[in-house]
Design goal:
- This protein is mostly beta strands.
- 8% of the residues lie in helices and 47% in strands.
- The protein is built from four helices and 17 strands.
- The strands form two sheets. It has a 15-stranded mixed beta sheet that branches. The protein has a two-stranded antiparallel ribbon with strand order 1-2.
- A hairpin with a 2-residue loop joins strand 4 (72-82) and strand 5.
- The protein starts with a strand and ends with a strand.
- Mean pLDDT is 85; it is low at 1-36 and 112-116.
Length: 324
């Protein structure tokens, strides 16, 4: 699903998922391959487990297994623009407590994007933090819809101390390249990666843009990497109810690790920047220090952006702090 600009197919779904850490592409979809590399051993067998860190399941869990207490929520709508056109919205609601997190995400295409697709995506996730805000257990569910003939449901779960992940998918995933237990060690799901790269604190003396987050989406293993690029900048996003204030500018890249055909292991085309602003002092916690307010990118002369509208923090007692 996407928009044609010149000879390039620009995927709104992929671009939106950059923001939730599925760095499929800014502009070009990065498929894992067009044909099977198998046949692979049957799931559950020793041969399968030597190749893959996931165990496909016949039925989903159906819901997060965690009972989390209240925390501080970050809620915003991100307006997507591509080459100057309105192409959609991303709605996010992220809750972070001392114990864990939840994420609710929805993407819908609008404007010129609907000339090519009516695609939508919804996802939710939850997980538990360790003593240093590292994610030690996580649940993830995603539903990508293009039409009745083209949709995908995916569920991933990693329990505390588990090396292997539980995977359910409908239609069932076709596996193309292995991702081993060693390669998947410490990897989080795409929405947990959003929490790790854009919300949680960094150690004292470390730049908030200096992060590397290992990610596994069920078939592919990659790293999301942010690096400082421009330091503290003053944002004055045009439009009503937009964020205006200081933010750190981070360069965001994806490094593919496993699960890709060799010819698809190259770098993502284009440049992407993530902008983070600090949470007000009175709302900061051991698991919440920053929130994302904008992401921009460029492929050649084509620019794209996701800009926060009505970004706000909602404390556990219901107190609302507007960031616009």
């Amino acid at each position: 699903m996407g928009v044609m600009v010149g000879h390039k197919r620009i995927s709104m779904t992929c671009f939106a998922q950059v923001f939730v850490a599925v760095l499929g592409a800014l502009a070009l979809s990065t498929s894992a391959g067009a044909f099977d590399e198998g046949p692979f051993p049957d799931p559950g067998t020793q041969s399968w487990q030597s190749l893959f860190a996931v165990d496909p399941m016949p039925e989903p869990l159906g819901a997060s297994p965690y009972a989390l207490g209240d925390g501080t929520r970050f809620v915003t709508t991100l307006k997507g623009e591509l080459a100057g056109f309105d192409v959609g919205r991303v709605f996010i609601d992220v809750m972070l407590s001392e114990e864990g997190y939840t994420v609710d995400y929805q993407m819908e295409q609008r404007g010129v994007a609907r000339w090519f697709s009516d695609g939508e995506a919804t996802a939710n996730a939850a997980g538990l933090f360790g003593p240093s805000a590292e994610i030690i257990s996580s649940y993830y569910y995603n539903f990508d819809y293009d039409d009745d003939e083209d949709n995908q449901r995916t569920e991933l779960f990693r329990g505390i101390g588990d090396e292997r992940l539980r995977l359910w998918s409908l239609p069932e995933y076709t596996f193309r390249q292995p991702v081993s237990v060693e390669q998947a060690a410490g990897a989080v799901d795409p929405l947990a990666a959003l929490v790790a790269v854009a919300f949680t604190p960094v150690p004292a003396g470390v730049d908030p843009c200096d992060r590397r987050v290992p990610v596994l989406d069920g078939r592919r293993r990659f790293d999301l990497v942010t690096k400082p690029d421009g330091g503290l900048v003053r944002l004055k996003i045009r439009g009503n109810d937009r964020f205006r204030g200081n933010a750190v500018r981070c360069r965001l890249t994806q490094e593919k690790v496993a699960g890709y055909k060799e010819k698809n292991r190259g770098d993502i085309e284009g440049d992407i920047w993530l902008y983070l602003t600090e949470v007000p002092q009175e709302l900061r916690t051991e698991t919440l220090r920053y929130v994302p307010v904008m992401i921009t990118g460029k492929v050649g002369l084509i620019g794209a952006s996701l800009k926060a509208k009505r970004p706000r923090l909602i404390a556990a007692d219901g107190t609302v702090t507007e960031l616009y």
